[in-house]
């Protein structure tokens, strides 16, 4: 039906039905056809049981996602165990004990579970490259796989990579809770502050469940 | 609209048209907000109304298939109210011209869904084919409308695909319901709700100015939307289950599976926010809440059983209120939360009683309000949960480098230094 005639037609039909059939005052007409249809459907698919339904018992368990044990990013030649990280006394996130091993922020979501899972990796050691040396150059669409302790694997695709000053780290965008199953990979980047002994920036790769 | 072979459709048309009369575009039909709420706020309400549309349309189709004309009438009134509310929001979000185009298109796709259900009930393949043909036309028209309103941010193909999927969920659940395959019907019922709810985000993301669309992707707004989806769905599904319990219909078991799916999703959400131990505790309390509501509905006229269920529910309201207050870090008090849960339970019991007495108009009115109440409660909880979680998040950046490759790292091509998007100034960032 062309849009130009839809509204007038519907309006006219409504008014005709309301006026002609006396909608407010008269009972709806019962037709033989309708009665037959109702009986037919009721007699087959929708027949009520003879007895009342049994008592209902809600589920009291849910499928918890297992913890991550391995990180694989073929495009970056990353294939690493995953250690568990918490918070340090000053409230900053702990970092992996080794520069060739990734670490998962354990108080946050597990990869593949609703919410943003966070995995950290060093960009370098004092003498050579770390596991996330190539993260700043990773392209959107790159595949990231996280193997979990129950043998399952969560697969993610990088959506964007961003570099931010550590002093303005976007805690909300990285850690704040949502129910979207996402992954954030975090490492260092930018220039190195020799006085502080640390990089000035963080590189963050954002990934969605594939 | 075609009429061939649709005697029963004609019989029901007055019902539909009476509901739709209010929706026809007319000068001043779209309320103008006195104080314009934030676009993001309107957008997540739009999501909720779209989700509600899906379940109300499914309920309408199912009652048509059952031949339960009194329920059809009440369901259609609720659907008309939903469309009126949605049209008002479309006007506020995207302008009155958009609302004037949206309203008749949306209303007519409801009429064709109803015609489809009528054809299923009559086992009239020709009428079903006619309805499918008309639905296909409206899928194209609605898709083109959304694409046009997005000013190029949403392609016609993508918009049409989203509408096709929405219609597919509704016709699919109706097919399965008519065939007595309640498990398949209810799978599609949940899928349809979730897809249509999320369609609101897609549409708002495409139709709103980029800055407003960006706000919707911020964590706090996502959490508000997502908790709203889960808790409002709980209201819908517990009502579906209590209706099946009241009448002892054969879809009771499948309906129970639906609410269990929602309960598991809610527990998983609590796991995300507060960990597995909290999720287990929550799920146990939530399961008790659901079980006792169903027991209340099944009690029928046995007042002693009803009183037992009510007493049990009162205890759970208090314990669940205390649990949630703890989860919010006392940002919300146990008393307030228990009161909100008490109101929720009272509405659900009233819905069950109204349905049992065949007062379908009241049952639908209460159901409509219960959906809104849970969506509003979800928003309050999302803010308090977000603040509670934010208080224990890591501070600052990560020290993930020792400088051995500093020359290489600083000269590598990569992302330019970005100023992070400022966080939404909400109660979700205390002490940070």
From TrEMBL, chain A:
Q: Which domain of life is it from?
A: Bacteria
In the record, which residues are listed under signal peptide? Answer: none
Q: What is this protein called?
A: Class F sortase
Gene3D superfamilies given in the database record: Sortase
Q: Does the keyword Hydrolase apply?
A: yes
Annotated source species: Paractinoplanes durhamensis
Keywords for the protein's UniProt record, in alphabetical order: Hydrolase
One Pfam family, please name it: Sortase
Keyword NAD tagged: no
Query: InterPro entries annotated for this entry?
Result: Sortase, Sortase_dom-sf, Sortase_F
What the entry lists under CDD domains is as follows: Sortase_F
């Amino acid at each position: 039906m062309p849009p130009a005639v839809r509204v007038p037609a519907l309006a006219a039909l409504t008014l005709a039905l309301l006026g002609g059939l006396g909608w407010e005052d008269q009972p709806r007409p019962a037709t033989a056809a309708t009665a037959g249809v109702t009986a037919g459907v009721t007699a087959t698919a929708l027949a009520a049981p003879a007895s009342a339904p049994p008592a209902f018992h809600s589920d009291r368990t849910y499928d918890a996602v297992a913890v991550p044990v391995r990180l694989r990013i073929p495009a970056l030649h990353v294939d690493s165990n995953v250690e568990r990280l918490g918070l340090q006394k000053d409230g900053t996130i702990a970092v992996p004990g080794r520069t060739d091993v990734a670490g998962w922020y354990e108080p946050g979501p597990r990869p593949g579970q609703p919410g943003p899972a966070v995995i950290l990796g060093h960009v370098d050691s004092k003498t050579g490259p770390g596991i996330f040396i190539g993260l700043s150059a990773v392209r959107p669409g790159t595949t990231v796989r996280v193997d979990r302790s129950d043998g399952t694997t969560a697969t993610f695709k990088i959506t964007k990579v961003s570099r931010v000053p550590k002093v303005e780290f976007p805690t909300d965008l990285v850690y704040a809770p949502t129910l979207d199953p996402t992954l954030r990979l975090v490492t260092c980047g930018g220039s190195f502050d020799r006085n502080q002994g640390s990089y000035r920036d963080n590189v963050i790769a954002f990934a969605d469940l594939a | 609209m075609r009429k061939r072979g649709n005697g029963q459709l004609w019989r029901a048309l007055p019902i539909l048209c009476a509901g739709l009369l209010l929706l026809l575009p007319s000068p001043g039909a779209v309320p103008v907000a006195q104080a314009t709420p934030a676009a993001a706020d309107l957008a997540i309400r739009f999501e909720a109304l779209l989700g509600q549309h899906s379940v109300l349309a499914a309920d309408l189709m199912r009652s048509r298939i059952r031949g339960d004309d009194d329920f059809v009438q009440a369901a259609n009134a609720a659907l008309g109210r939903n469309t009126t509310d949605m049209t008002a929001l479309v006007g506020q979000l995207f302008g009155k011209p958009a609302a004037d185009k949206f309203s008749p298109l949306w209303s007519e796709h409801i009429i064709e869904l109803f015609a489809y259900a009528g054809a299923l009930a009559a086992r009239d393949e020709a009428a079903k084919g006619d309805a499918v043909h008309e639905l296909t036309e409206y899928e194209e028209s609605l898709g083109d409308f959304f694409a046009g309103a997005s000013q190029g941010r949403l392609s016609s193909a993508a918009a049409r695909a989203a509408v096709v999927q929405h219609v597919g969920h509704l016709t699919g659940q109706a097919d399965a319901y008519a065939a007595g395959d309640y498990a398949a019907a209810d799978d599609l019922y949940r899928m349809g709700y979730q897809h249509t709810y999320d369609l609101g985000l897609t549409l708002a993301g495409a139709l709103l100015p980029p800055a407003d669309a960006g706000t919707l992707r911020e964590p706090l707004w996502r959490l508000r939307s997502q908790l709203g989806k889960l808790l409002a769905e709980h209201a819908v599904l517990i009502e579906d289950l209590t209706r099946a319990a009241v009448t002892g219909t054969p879809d009771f078991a499948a309906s129970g599976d639906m609410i269990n799916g929602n309960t598991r999703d809610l527990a998983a959400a609590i796991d995300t926010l507060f960990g597995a131990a909290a999720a287990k505790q929550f799920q146990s309390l939530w399961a008790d809440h659901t079980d006792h509501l169903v027991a209340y509905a099944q009690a029928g006229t046995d007042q002693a059983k009803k009183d037992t269920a009510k007493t049990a529910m009162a205890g759970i309201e208090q314990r669940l209120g205390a649990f949630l207050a703890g989860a919010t870090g006392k940002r919300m008090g146990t008393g307030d939360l228990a009161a909100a849960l008490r109101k929720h339970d009272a509405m659900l019991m009233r819905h069950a009683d109204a349905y049992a007495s065949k007062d379908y108009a009241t049952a639908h009115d209460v159901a409509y309000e219960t959906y809104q109440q849970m969506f509003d409660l979800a928003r309050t909880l999302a803010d308090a949960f977000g603040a509670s979680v934010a208080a224990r998040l890591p501070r600052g950046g990560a020290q993930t480098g020792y400088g051995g490759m500093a020359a290489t790292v600083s000269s590598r091509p990569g992302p330019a230094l970005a100023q992070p998007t400022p966080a939404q100034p909400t109660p979700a960032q205390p002490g940070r």
